[in-house]
Amino acid sequence: MIDEIARPDDVRRQNRRLALTALRRHGLLSRTDIVAQTGLSPSTVSAITTSLISEGIIIEAREGDLGSNRRGRPQIALVLNPDVASVVTVELALNFVHAVLYDYKGQVVAEISERVPTLEMSADALFQSIFAMLDSLIDKRPSGTGPLMHISMGVQGVTDATGATMLWSPITPDTNIAFGKVLSRRYGVDASVANDCNMIAEALRWTDPEHYRENFAAILLSHGIGMGLYLKGKPFVGAHSSAAEFGHMLHIPKGALCRCGRRGCIEAYASDYAILRTISGENESTPPPQDIDPSTFAAAAGRARTGNGDEGAAFRKAGQAIGAGLRSLFSLIDPVPVALVGPGAGVFDLMEEELRGVISGNSGWGATQDLSIRCYPDEHPLIVQGCLMTSLLHLDTQIFAPGDLKDPQLKHAL
Amino acid sequence: MIDEIARPDDVRRQNRRLALTALRRHGLLSRTDIVAQTGLSPSTVSAITTSLISEGIIIEAREGDLGSNRRGRPQIALVLNPDVASVVTVELALNFVHAVLYDYKGQVVAEISERVPTLEMSADALFQSIFAMLDSLIDKRPSGTGPLMHISMGVQGVTDATGATMLWSPITPDTNIAFGKVLSRRYGVDASVANDCNMIAEALRWTDPEHYRENFAAILLSHGIGMGLYLKGKPFVGAHSSAAEFGHMLHIPKGALCRCGRRGCIEAYASDYAILRTISGENESTPPPQDIDPSTFAAAAGRARTGNGDEGAAFRKAGQAIGAGLRSLFSLIDPVPVALVGPGAGVFDLMEEELRGVISGNSGWGATQDLSIRCYPDEHPLIVQGCLMTSLLHLDTQIFAPGDLKDPQLKHAL
DNA sequence: CTCTTTTATTTCGAGGCTCGAAAAAAATAG
DNA sequence: CTATTTTTTTCGAGCCTCGAAATAAAAGAG
């Protein structure tokens, strides 16, 4: 907050953050490299690394091949200590839970995934399933693994702006499930829950920082349509919820029936169920099914590519809806690079022409001709990667930066 | 930025900011009050106020009626020193420039306004007019007035995200006019240019902080339709431009012709020219005029209220367009309180029912039934007020907070 | 009219922090 | 083995905030 009071040790906190995120980004860095990366003075870097080492957060990597046989004292490579902590990511989707345990360097330690009938489960039953999976992951941990220090969930659904609660989701009948609080209490660590699209955006920013840096949108085209947005280098969240509900922007007033109960949403034209509904020739008011078989969707796309029938038209209609949404979005935030993610990204060839057609026609100040759109048909690795980065960055910037835990190893003797 | 290095004196900078903004908000505050407001320790507040006084930025107000005859040592009231600096606001609209000189406490020192044919002027001619007005304001300054230290412009048009340039505006044929740089160079002070809607939002936040605090939207309904947005207590700007071009979100694909050259924008249905075009029965593709006489618009509204003809339908159509835009906007940022500003706010009674009708129908997580909409038919005082606050807050947080100018009086001997 | 009580503000020392300069450490080059 | 080069640490100056104690300035009590 802007109206927050500053204390002398906040300075050290911030500069520790800089050093840690530099190490996170580059993996292997000497003190001199950190000086170059951060702009801090050698004295300060020395002080910071000394305390980070004494706290076990980073370690000196002997045999680090840092620009070897040069003249002068050789640099000592520093690395994040993989065993100072571990984190768990949980991906929650329709009828499906996937959890992974990572060390502090981001290497997989253990993994588990299960099919569970989320639609028929109470929140409590869902928690029991998740608990069992996490317990087993934690049991599986080899000795030497650091204590669990953060849990990050990515869910299909709307979460609150603070990452504490899942407000609503199509995958379960319950609402307002406080995943953050419950997991945090049970495992004695910080836990956050976020929209899967925001996790995808986080992952893209991490895997391709050249392209997805300050401003970009990641749009998930699947059973629903969601968006993760970065503006000015920061994740965009709404006033109260995770928001950025791209799929529920209004495309056609009084138009097709959406899964959310309203009419005319983009999702009601561009999601998998909407496309299949259009192809089937059903009425636009036919309530959508709760699940779509991926193979059915793929088959429809196949027919659209080869045949010359109605299938192609349905995809073009979807392209128009997405294009219209982007045009409105770009009016609000300026044009930004777009990543299309999920099954819908695999059929982008069927939508691209219409999609770009709707957007183009620049308005005098914001040209969109050279709009970058990239496709990532498989969303799951990105969601997990995003959760991982969320957890690790939380440790880097919130837990380890303060430097007020004398011995993090003991904080939560799991 | 998050990746910025912190130094020990940044701490003092930030805490000076806190003290100054507390004084700005409350006007008259003792050191003890500042302690209560900011949470800083008495020692720190003492140190900060001492240096602020020695720099002439604040002064002790003798005869300050602070909770008088209580027991104990009386509190000494502190106030911003009105004469430490002055600022100029410039409101630039179609055929109209209005400039005001204020002191550091925000009191009017001198004022001037002129009609100038902006549509037929080159950028250079426009600058000459503005220069002449500002020169005369500065001449008019009574002795004792502090040196000019900031200029803030509010313009009808699109500006860049940094407040340096007006990228495009309907009021002048030129584009990319670097108001910020040119004014800054000529007067030797910082100068910024912002979209008028953002200034309106800034003003509302200042005049009614109870209602417009963290999240709200100010929508200007006039010849064009713009928006100023606050999210999480901070002004929203786009990736590159001031953005938030609410009026150019897409309402009806391939719909009515907008002034921006594209089709189907909200503005093409809800601006004054659009409403009059609908009433006239003209084709939706008729190019809009560059200016609308306010009395013509008012007369149409009058007929819509009394008669039962086509006029009412045109306003209802406008209400639908705005409602559709808000529904999409709320999908992206969650529902927030809305302020409608300008001539269109004066005819809200003709649009309200349709507008709310389109928005309602909650989506399961974000209810909009109790959506707050307030109307402010006169936009001009708000624009000026917003510029004023922009200037003063710039001084408070950017210029005076660092405390590195030993004698601000001498910085720019005007 | 003086002394006590109460409240506001300042002073002072402890403990942070960063930084520049100098010192120490650890290699290569000759 | 010594000189050179580069990296890292050490040390002192100069910021900062804060708590505790000291000082200042009023009202109330006797």
UniProtKB/TrEMBL annotation, chains A, B:
UniProt-recorded name of the protein: ROK family transcriptional regulator
InterPro entries reported for this sequence: ArsR-like_HTH (IPR011991), ATPase_NBD (IPR043129), ROK (IPR000600), ROK_cs (IPR049874), WH-like_DNA-bd_sf (IPR036388), WH_DNA-bd_sf (IPR036390)
Signal peptide as annotated in the record: none
Family matches, as Pfam families: HTH_24 (PF13412), ROK (PF00480)
CDD domains the record matches: HTH_ARSR
Family membership: Belongs to the ROK (NagC/XylR) family.
Biological process annotations from GO: regulation of DNA-templated transcription
Origin: domain of life: Bacteria
